[in-house]
Amino acid sequence: MQSPKPEECNILTIRVDTIYEGGVKDVAFKENGGQMAYINRALENGYTLREFREKTLNKEVTLHLAKTITGSYTNSIV
Hints:
Distance between the termini: 15 Å
CATH class: Mainly Beta
Strand order of the largest sheet: 1-5-6
Oligomer: single chain
Shape: globular
CATH architecture: Beta Barrel
Order of helices and strands: EEEEHEE
Number of domains: 1
Helix content: 10-25%
């Protein structure tokens, strides 16, 4: 799903304590409380883990989670 509209998203705000590569070229974010989110194939699209760590590590971020037809979520950072 490309650029979902706000009404097509659930919003999640977390404090990023850990950033790592997960899945296939995904960037995963985790907070101490166990909440986890990821950006699907972010590393395939010109981003690096270093960039994400510099911009988001130990900070509060807001993620817009696109609602899909199956009811699951696809994550993207705002």
